[in-house]
Structure formats: structure tokens, C-alpha cells
Amino acid sequence: MKKLTILVPAFNEEGCINPFYEAVEPFLDNGKYESRYLFIDDGSKDNTLNEIKELRKKDNRVHYISLSRNSGKEAALEAGLKASLDQDAVIMMDADLQHPPYLIKDMLEKYSEGYKIVYTRQRNRKGDSFLKKVTARMFYSVFNKYSDVPLEQSSKDYMLIDKDVVKAFLDMPDRYRFTRGIFSYVGFKKYCLEFDFVQREIGKTKWNLKKLYKYGINGLNQFSNVFLLVPKMVAWLSFLTSIASIFLFCFNVIGLESFLIMLIVPFFFMLTNIVLYWMMFVLYSTRREAMRRPIYFVGETSLDE
């Protein structure tokens, strides 16, 4: 019988643990798979860990890893995947039930057909704010234009992955991971399932624009060369500014000399600082990679019991 892990990162999701378990349980094929739940408590400040422990008393297939601090969803997923190397397949999904459990049956069916990765995408961005829709569209457009690892629009990290994919993922040396980019990078036979937007009914999302921005920037930094556009843009703007200055000088525009000096000098200072900012960003990212710091620490776990 094949082993299956339901991998669930959770941060301050005390109200979701039991509803999640009850919603997922009917869709597990326990006749074909030896299933288990692996919750990764990502340094929650509420009773998330206690709720998981109480659930474990009722069902010993429920396991957990509690990180010593909030390390982020990417680190939580890596912790769970490292603890699932002995499993045949892993299904990663969020605890908030915005990833519909009914797709698990379809995932397992496609897995039995030989697909190594069965991922999901949302048919539309219903429920997202206008700003989030626009920024998401811009991100996918820029990422796919300047990356050799394309991402499908509105794809999610709700997916089933085979043990070979888990190993390939963990073999990647990246310390600050962009999960969807890595799963696209490693290849393997893939199949996509679509679903409609599901409204979150319990709790609040932990994502905000700042976190999404950092997540997107990390993805662009890891899997694209889009930052090379910055010095190119500066070069072109500098060139055009020089042409404009020569044009004004040749036509002897009286009274604008002082204005141009006051305009051009701050303009170049601004452009220089933009370039320096991105250079420092890349250098700091390189430093973080080189330092090889652990990206999470385990506080306690039930896997040793």
C-alpha cells in the first residue's frame, strides 16, 4: 500500500484545524493509500498547536512539526517535505479550506495514471481586490517574459507531488525558496486541475501586499533576469536626457539653463540610487545564500513518538 501525506502549513489557524480535518477525511482513499496528516505549525501565537495535539489524540494518523518561530510558508513546506522522504506522494494544501478538498480524488486518479505533479490553478481571480488582480497580472507577465521557467497564470501551490519530485525539490540548493518556480524548474510529467474561487470562511488571510511583494521579488530574483532591465533603463534615460540637453543647447533656449541643472542633477541622483538599490538587493540575496543559514528550527514534533 502506498504512503500518502497531507502536508498542511498553518500559522495562527486555530479555528481551521478541525474543520479542515473533517472536510478532507471523506476524500482520502484509505483502501489504496496509507494516509497521514502532517501539520506544520509555523510559530503560531494562538492555539493552533494545541488544536493539532487534541486532534492527534482522536486520530494517531495526525502528526505535526512545530517550528520555533514564524519562518514563513516556504520554510514550513520544506520542513514537511524533508519529513516526508519515506512517503510515495505528498499533497500540499492550505488549512483555510480555500483549496477545495474534493480535488484530492482527482489528484490521486491522475497520480495513478503516472503523473508526477498534479497541480491546480484558479479559473478566475474572483474575490481578489482590484489592486491584487492588477499586480498579479503584472507579476506573471514580467516573470514569464524574463524567465526560462514559465509559471501558469493563477497557479497555486495546492498540488500532489511524487516522491521523486520531493527529492528533486530538496536537492535544490536555494535557501530562500520560490516553491512554484522550483516545481516548474525540476520538470516531470504534470497535469493541471482547475477550480473556482473559494471564499475563506474562518479566520483572516495572513498575506498582505508587503508579504506578496517580497514573495514576488524573491521569485523574480531566483528565476529571472528581470533586474538587468534596471541598468538598461537608466542607460536609455540618461541617453535621452543628454539628447534633450543638446537639443535645448543648440536651439539656445534662454532662461532654461538653471532649470535644466536643477532638474537633471536630482534626476541622475534618483537614477543612481535606483541602480544602487537593486545592486544591493542582489548582493544581499547572494550573501544570504552564501551564509547557508538554517531556514527553520523545529521546536517539537510528534514524528519521533
Summarize the structure.
This protein is of the alpha/beta class and about 300 residues long.
Structure description:
The chain is an alpha/beta fold and 305 residues long. Helix content is 47%, strand content 17%. The chain has 10 helices and 8 strands. It has an 8-stranded mixed β-sheet with strand order 7-5-6-4-1-2-3-8, with helices on both faces. Strand 2, helix 2 and strand 3 form a beta-alpha-beta unit. Helix 9 packs antiparallel against helix 10. The protein is elongated and about 85 Å long. The two termini are 22 Å apart. The model has no long low-confidence stretch (mean pLDDT 78).
Key features of this structure:
8 strands, elongated, 305 residues, alpha/beta
The percentage helix is 40-55%
Number of strands: 8
Question: In what range is the share of β-strand residues?
Answer: 15-25%
Please trace the helix and strand order, writing H or E for each element.
EHEHEHEHEHEHHEHHHE
Could you say which overall geometry the principal axes of the C-alpha atoms support? elongated
